[in-house]
Every structure is written in C-alpha cells, then in structure tokens.
Write a structure and sequence with these properties.
Cyclic Phosphodiesterase, Chain: A, 4-stranded antiparallel β-sheet, alpha+beta, 9 helices, about 250 residues
C-alpha cells in the first residue's frame, strides 16, 4: 500500500463534486461514470487525456505518495493526521483558476498564497517519519524527468522534488497535453465547467489521507480530516523553525 496526504474536501463539497465529475471517478465510493461532453473531443479521447489524474483521484498534493516506513502502521498515520488537524487553523485561499502548468492543465491559485505554501511545508515535515526511503530504482526513475540539483536533493532527502520553495500547488485536470489544439479545447471547457469555484475565495478547512491498495491501482479516500486548531500555517512553520534552531 501507498499513502498520500492530499488537499481535499468532503464528498459533497462543490469543488470535489466538480473535480470528480470532470475526471470520471469518485475516490470516496470508487464509482466511475461518464465525463462531461467536450466539444471537439470524443468521450474516448477525453478519457485518455484524463487517465492518470483519474487514477490518483481529484486532489492537490501536500505529501506525495509514499510507502510506510518499517515499524509504522496505517492506524498510527491516521492518528497523526487527526492530531495535526486539531492543531492547525483553517485558512483562506483568495482564488483558483484553470491554468496551464507546463504541459498539464490544472486548477491552481491565481495569486501567491503564503498560508497554503506553509500548510504544504508542514505536511511534508510532519508526516516524514512515516515515509519509507525511496528505492534506488525509484530515484533513478524520477531523475529521468530532468531535475535541478535542488530538486534532486529534496527528492533524495524528502522523497519528492517539488516541495518547500519548489512547491506549486495544483489540482491536476489532464495528462500531459502535447497537442495545442486539444489543450486549448480542454482549457476552454474547464474554465466553463469550474466557473462555480474559480475566481473567488475558498476556505481550506480539510485535508485527506488517500490510499493506493495495490501498485498501479486507483487511489481511494481513507478519511477526510477537518482543521479545528488555532495556529495558522505560517505561524506553525515559524514555531517549528524556532524549535529546530533551539534543539
């Protein structure tokens, strides 16, 4: 099994419903269903262009998928999620938009969001004790994507290259889009489809623990945790940094 800490909300949340419908799978129930009709694309082609994000389930990565370290358990990881959720306060994101992220299409913040970046940083550090080190094969596979020296160092130490100052939050909506015509069709359709949740404030009050039961299989929501604490993410990062300096 692999586990991941993802930005996600309850099953009945409007953002989640739209994302699940766009990708054609509900990671809460495991149900698959027809996707929206996209002018200029056949249903089969739209399915191909969303295959990988459909497998992972609609989400925003906070702590990338990992195997459990020896001696750690799923129950202990879930307990750690509950403890973390009870410490951190909800925070606002000013607005999302449908944007291109390299060759991918994704929902991303339109503005710099320091609290969101701090929250992701906290997740990387807090759940690191549960992560098993990457195998040599995994390291070599990831290095084929052409990482910078800093990204390679992050991957080696933390298991994922796009963290801390390299982090860019995104909720993936497509595979890599090599055809510009298809990319334009998909972006225009997504802008219309997600209009209820873009261009306006969104409160981040939850996160999810997702599980991949078997290699290459679909990820499922194990549990959604509600932020009920009193410490803002940036404040928590500052406190953690002070604690490390004094250790």
């Amino acid at each position: 099994m692999r586990y991941a800490i993802y930005f996600a909300a309850d099953a009945d949340d409007r953002l989640m419903k739209l994302g699940n419908s766009w990708l054609g799978r509900d990671p809460f129930s495991g149900e698959t269903f027809g996707q929206p009709e996209i002018a200029g694309l056949t249903p089969e082609r739209f399915g191909e262009l969303t295959a990988s994000p459909r497998r992972y389930g609609f989400h925003g990565t906070l702590k990338a998928p990992f195997f459990l370290r020896e001696g750690r358990s799923e129950a202990a990881l879930a307990d750690a999620c509950r403890t973390f959720a009870a410490e951190i306060a909800p925070f606002d994101i000013r607005e999302f938009g449908v944007n291109r992220l390299g060759r991918f299409l994704a929902l991303t913040p339109n503005l710099d969001e320091p609290e969101l970046r701090a929250f992701a940083s906290l997740c990387v550090r807090r759940f690191e004790p549960f992560r098993a080190p990457l195998s040599d094969a995994d390291l070599e596979r990831r290095r084929k994507s052409g990482l910078t020296p800093k990204q390679d160092a992050y991957m080696t130490e933390w298991g994922y290259p796009y963290i801390f100052d390299e982090f860019r939050f995104h909720m993936t909506l497509s595979e890599k889009l090599e055809n510009d015509t298809e990319a334009d069709l998909l972006k225009s359709a997504a802008e219309d489809y997600f209009t209820d949740v873009t261009g306006r404030p969104l409160t981040c009050g939850t996160f999810g623990l997702y599980v991949e039961p078997e290699a290459g299989g679909p990820f499922h929501v194990h549990e959604i945790y509600r932020l009920t604490g009193s410490v803002a993410p940036q404040q928590a990062v500052s406190q953690a940094g002070t604690a490390r300096e004094n250790a």
